[in-house]
Specification:
single chain, about 350 residues, 8-stranded mixed β-sheet, 7-stranded mixed β-sheet, 8 helices, about 30% strand, globular
Length: about 350
């Protein structure tokens, strides 16, 4: 990818964003990304979460040294997403499977990220595993103006006395280089017990996600919305295609609809995680109609990708080529069981007089 862009684009620094030139036009460009960081827990026991394994005395023997190694690995990945094109790490990145705010603060103090001066939007969720979602943003590029966590209410067999506690969905609104955008960070219920048995939970998650977007659209019909996350479903599953009603072609979009650039990748056999010799593309970034337009007078979608550099893949053995997990019967020195995903947003630079 780096060599391709090196031939196509001239990168330059401009007003705390980055731009490239093509056909004698210059464009500002920012990376928006999502990463499931695979159980980023600290090493201290929290009495109100199920983190007993992730302690020095726990089953995983999760020590301070292992925790710090995990942080370094996560920071390396995040710092490199989009860097070859924009010259910097993502302007905005959603993350999942983080234990608390402390691990985010420790992450952002790592080499490669601390100098970027990231801000954090995070709420503790009621998830039974003690994991949350969050949004990280470069303060010089994005300014949050509002945020809210939406609780997902699930029950076993529709019995209101049997609550299933899972992750919230996080809505953050703000200004990206002076333009308003809305971002929803998701981590939908897993496929534990099987895809069919767990499907209703993800359909409920999709319904909540759509309600959040419909609420934004009711106030702003032309809203620029990005919903991102680990959906635990592929782009063709009912939660995405039938509830969110995503479309795979930008030309088919009408007002207040959604374009999923990951669907075409999935059709080509690409994925962000692997299981039983098959690839899934659970990690997705989906955008609203206004972001999918081809008019680059304001920020619009340019391209989507999976960040799957060689070092992020298992180097050998039965799972060679799969995402290089950080923990399998002990710390492996790896990264995550998911590859990150990203999109580029670009807009034409207005020439100075």
């Amino acid at each position: 990818m780096k060599n391709v862009f090196a031939y196509q684009f001239l990168l330059c620094f401009l007003c705390a964003t980055f731009s490239f030139s093509q056909s004698e036009k210059e464009y500002k460009i920012n990376t928006i990304a999502f990463y499931n960081v695979e159980n980023l827990f600290d090493y201290e026991d929290d009495p109100i979460t199920f983190d007993n394994d992730r302690t020095p005395e726990g089953a995983d023997h999760w020590t301070q040294e292992i925790y710090e190694a995990k942080l370094l690995n996560m920071a390396r990945v995040i710092s490199e997403i989009g860097e070859d094109v924009t010259g910097t790490s993502p302007a905005i990145i959603g993350v999942s499977e983080i234990e608390n705010r402390r691990v985010l603060e420790d992450l952002l103090n790592q080499k490669g990220l601390v100098e970027k001066n990231y801000g954090i939007v995070h709420f503790d969720s009621p998830d039974r595993r003690g994991i949350d979602v969050a949004l990280l943003y470069q303060k010089k590029l994005f300014v949050p103006t509002g945020y809210k966590a939406f609780e997902l209410f699930l029950y076993d067999n529709n019995d209101k006395t049997k609550r299933v506690y899972t992750r919230d969905q996080l809505l953050v609104s703000g200004m990206l280089d002076g333009e308003k955008i809305h971002i929803i960070v998701n981590h939908w219920p897993s496929r534990s017990g099987g895809e069919a048995i767990s499907r209703p939970k993800r359909l409920k998650a999709a319904q909540l996600n759509k309600q959040i977007m419909d609420s934004v659209f009711s106030d702003e019909p032309y809203a620029k919305i990005i919903t991102m996350g680990d959906f635990n479903d592929d782009p063709k599953n009912a939660s995405v295609k039938e509830v969110l009603k995503t479309k795979s072609e930008k030309e088919d979009l009408k007002l207040k609809e959604l374009y999923n650039p990951m669907e075409d990748m999935f059709k080509k056999g690409m994925g962000t995680l692997a299981y039983r010799d098959a690839w899934n593309l659970f990690d997705q970034i989906i955008i609203s109609t206004e972001l999918a337009k081809n008019d680059y007078s304001s920020y619009r979608f340019y391209k989507a990708g999976i960040f799957n550099k060689n070092y992020l893949a298992t180097p050998s053995g039965q799972y060679k080529g799969y995402p290089f997990r950080s923990f399998v019967n002990g710390f492996t020195g790896g990264y995550s069981d998911h590859f990150p995903v990203y999109i580029y947003l670009i807009k034409e630079k207005i020439p100075e007089n």
